[in-house]
Amino acid sequence: MRTLVLNAGYEPLAVVTFRRALVLVLAGKASVVAEDGEPVVGPRDVLGRPSVILLHRYIRPRRTYVTAVSRRGVLRRDAHACGYCGKPAHTVDHVLPRSRGGADSWENLVACCLRCNNVKGDHTPSEMGWKLRFTPAEPVGVVWQIKELEKPAAQWSAFLVPETAA
Ligand SMILES: [Zn+2]
């Protein structure tokens, strides 16, 4: 189930999961324009599944910009899924280990589960015979900007069903 996000000027901005849309609505960042399908039942409320939401604040789509790298940012970029095995990740791994000159950069950091991180240690993926599931890069684009809007809405995450990585 996907939700269309309209910018504050009513122009279509992006398509996100309904979970992400609900987070924005619950955080007061957007309002529901149209609902569709089965309601979502939470501990305190029953909410309609939004099919279209309208952002309250205008987002200026960014084409190129530099985002400061952070552990949280890397985990969010990689949807908290290990870059090597795909399992839930709570740590960040330097693809080229820091001890061997690896940088703290978007290109050299991936979300990593504790197990892979411990096993990998100071090795490179090729030394381990491992392959990254994707090529790490600086996050860009509108969906990332929408994700950033969700930051103060973390208290709602327990209310919502988990989603698979978009
Ligand atoms: Zn892993």
From TrEMBL:
One GO MF term on file is:
endonuclease activity
What name does the UniProt record give this protein?
HNH endonuclease
Q: Answer yes or no on keyword Nuclease.
A: yes
Enumerate the InterPro entries for this protein. Answer: HNH_5, HNH_nuc, NA-targeting_endonuclease
Any coiled-coil regions, as ranges:
none
The record places domain HNH nuclease at 69-118
**PANTHER family referenced in this protein's UniProt entry, alphabetically:** OS07G0170200 PROTEIN, SLL1193 PROTEIN
**Which keywords accompany this UniProt record?**
Endonuclease, Hydrolase, Nuclease
Q: Which organism is it from?
A: Sinomonas puerhi
SMART domains reported for this sequence:
HNHc
CDD domains per the record?
HNHc
